Amino acid sequence: MDLPVVSNTPPAAVGGCASKGCGSPPDALSHLPDHIRARVQDHPCYSEEAHHYFARMHVAVAPACNIQCNYCNRKYDCANESRPGVVSELLTPEQAVKKTLAVAAAIPQMTVLGIAGPGDPLANPERVFTTFRMLSRKAPDIKLCVSTNGLDLPRHVDEITTHNIDHVTITINCLDPEIGARIYPWIYWNHRRIRGEEAAAILIREQQKGLEMLTARGILVKVNSVMIPGVNDEHLKEVSRVVKAKGAFLHNVMPLIAEAEHGTHYGVTGQRGPTAAELQALQDACAGDMAMMRHCRQCRADAVGMLGEDRGAEFTLEKIDALEIDYASAMTRRQEVRAGIVQQLEAKRAEKEEAGRALSTTADIPAANDAERETAGHAMQRPVLMAIASTGQNLVNQHFGHAREFLVYEASERGARFVGHRKTDLYCVGEDRCGDESEDGAAAEAVLAHTIAALRGCEVVLCARIGFGPWNQLEAAGIQPNGEHAMEPIEDAVMAVYREMAAAGKLSGNAGQKRA
Fold first, then answer.
1. Nearest residue to 354 via CA among 49, 22, 20
2. Axis-axis angle for helices 327-359, 490-503 (nearest 10)
3. With contact defined as beta carbons under 8 Å apart, do 482 and 401 qualify?
4. Residue 85 has what pLDDT?
5. Which domains does the chain have, with CATH numbers?
6. For residue 299, what pLDDT is reported?
7. How far apart are CA 369 and CA 492, in angstroms?
8. Residue 220 CA neighbour count, 13 Å, CB half
């Protein structure tokens, strides 16, 4: 198969609200300098806005790992789990390049290729850098990223800078070896296995050294941290402060995944993960020091597609071999599609900026800070969490029963802000058969109960459509379904419902009384 070299000319930089003066920042990156925003604004793993429009993929070329984490159990040939460390096919570098180009042709909005496992990429340096080297030549318009635990990072910083890699993610769960010993049973360092606090101290030292080396070379660094209640949850506030001081531009605090069936140490020993409210509270606490990432999906090591979806099963090696692709036409199409998205985003940012200015003069929900409102004699209206069923494009455009996850926004007098997502199971069994109409009503009711539990703390669910059965049960659980804003932009719909609640007198009282 002839694999072409595509143009190195990127799409036009996204403008609009990239400047600090924008009246309504698009996401948590709005405070960053323009030159950094230009590097990440079409990166779905870094930008809350971009993840509605751009796709990513991971290639599983790194099977070996040099540390053991109590929350990790790598699984191969597994199509039924969606979490880090899980893959269905291990790839050679050549296979990885072939798959990347096939995905790029089929999904023109795919902008990012990452290597994140299933082991640690830098424990497999030859396989990883061979892949990057070939992709830099054949697909230079695709951003290349690597995620690492950081143990071997200082040894490979120079190699990283020689490729088209300007985004690195380091997983840093602690700065205290005593805490680290509770997370990492062992590391493999200088040809020997080391355990306990000594191992944790070495890992922490190398992570911090690697972070400093990368930022000194202008490499953008995101830090991932796994929130483990009772182990490192309070300590992560200090982690966030320190990594920001050392130049990391984004912090992603993720919830521990610890189901027993996954076979991890934490799973089988009963270590619980955080609740959605606990995760949001920690992210909010860290946000005072650091830009926080809240849209992470904790993807598989072979994920393909938009965040929140996985199309990897469409691009197995066997299926790719059967495809007939006109790569030249496909790459031209990529540039056209991405240019169209850029134009669309610029228009939306301009609309958002105008709406922000209008909101500041709206009388029904005055846009003022707490002190100004108190001085003026206005009672503060409490914030409200709303869940949104969306397939992307930043629209309320999904049937309630077709959602495998809900985006969660917090609406307040200052506007709508994205705070996270809640994973659920599929409720509908077909386009017109949802839950209470399905043949297996008991199973559907169990799924609905799980969904309602996952949405705890949310007061409204916005969706394109919803059946009578789930509508009634959501209302009984204190969650109001709303299908009146189908195909509207999410933030517009959220704020419209918030104003309706304000007009109905539902928002007075303690600002936190309705939150879970």
1. 22
2. 20
3. no
4. 52
5. 34-330 (3.20.20.70), 369-503 (3.30.420.130)
6. 60
7. 21
8. 24
